[in-house]
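PROTEIN ENTRY
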Amino acid sequence: MHWPRPPAMTSELKSTSSRFRGTASVFNEITRLGRHFIGLLVVGVLIGLACLPLNLVDRIQEWQFQFLPTTGENPWTSIGLLIVFAPLLVMPILLILQRGPWRGGAGSGIPSTMNALGDPSLMPSAMEAGSTVHRGILWSVATAAMFPLGREGPVVQFGSAVARACQKRWPNWMPALTERQMVAIGGGAGLAGGFNTPLLGVVFMLEELTAEYSILTIWPALLVCIAAAGFSNLGGEPIFGLGLINVFAPESEQLLLAVPIGIAAGLVGGFFNRGLVWTTSRLAPMVRQRPLRTGLWLGAALSVLALLSWGTSTADGEALVKQLLERGLPELGADHSDVHSGLVSIWITVVRVIGPMLALAPGVPGGLIDPALTFGAVLGYSICAVIGFSTQVGVGLGLAAGLAGATQLPLVSLIFSWRLVGDQQLFAGACLTAVIAAYTGRLVSRTPVYHALAKLQRAPRL
């Protein structure tokens, strides 16, 4: 015989059951969030480890730079001459490989990533493992040969490829993000890993790769970028740390300096943007049809620039910027007058613009962040030297101006330059300088450089 439960007992059982379901629901939610946290952390670590070899290769340039007479105090040595003539041998080899078996590894890496983000059908080919490895090897060879190019292209593409592969391999350990969002987060983390600057990677993802603000991607991106930056240098100091600029500069003076530095670097950056896109479009058919001949001519041009500039046109520019901060402008030649110093400054700026164009335009993997930072620093130094202000402040503001003028990304430029100089006292001046340079650069070239290169890559080959 079945006896009905008293109403009080029934109510108590329902309450207990509901309590157990609530506890189980909370436990499941914590487990899910913990799994996603671990998954994103693993993605960041893997991206950092993928960027680590590129960061180690990049340090070769700083070691080789000391053999060049960039200060004007020492003559050319046999080792220095071997270094400056290396592009004559290396450039043809790179172009032949890019024209043939390693075709997928040609180009910066950022334009192809941006095209894949816009067209998902391009994602498999853009993130293919073999092409990613080939791009890293090509960039490493070019870097060892002292080509004047940066590394943000390979590291962004590395990060995107690793993030996509992780999402495909372990989907249950990843948050509910689309493939496009995960690839964009990975690209930003690659930049963070390449330059040990987590916030830079997040802002680059928002400002350039996605061009949209989404709270769903910001927090995962921060976690992945922090992990990537920490492991890409094994917890060491920022690879681009240029030291503190211990000079007091009132904000009013910074804002006044921001105008001439921002306009000058913006104009140069705009012409660099336009010149790189134009040169790339003109060299593309020549590289496809005559890679050996084109490589010999371009390699010879890089070597001649290096000889005529006492080696200051070589490498990514980090060592030259450090030299500006520590020793000032190179004293090249016997004449040390103000007019001669001004001409030297102009000449170094010119070669630091032309050199990266010749290296990047034929499709050698690399980046333009480092070259833009360098010619901006030289311009800032020169302007402050002319008006009698601290040249170190000029270098700090010039870093932001050069990058903003070339890329038209003021937030990325501000964060990057702020990180490089390590001094928050320059925030006001760097902010205004970056904005002025970005707008000035846009007057010269309406399309941001990465977007223009991505559009050029999508164009049909004639």
